[in-house]
Amino acid sequence: MHVIPVISTKGGEGKSTQAANFAGFLADAGLKVLLIDGDYAQPTASSIFALSYEAPHGLYELLMQTANLNDPSQIISKSVIPNLDVIVSNDPHAQLPTAMLHAPDGRLRLRNVLQHPLFQPYDVVIVDSQGARSIMLELIVLAATHTAVGVVKPILPDVREFIRGTINMIENLMPFSALGLKLPEIRILINCMKYTRLARDTYQQLEEIINDGSYSAHSDQIRVSLLKTCIYDLEIYVEGHAAGQPAHRLEKKTSRVSDSAFATMYNLANELFPEWKDNFDRLVTSAQQEVTHG
Ligand SMILES: Nc1ncnc2c1ncn2[C@@H]1O[C@H](COP(=O)(O)OP(=O)(O)OP(=O)(O)O)[C@@H](O)[C@H]1O
Ligand SMILES: [Mg+2]
Question: Counting ligands in written order, which one lies closest to the CA of residue 153?
Answer without folding.
Answer: 1
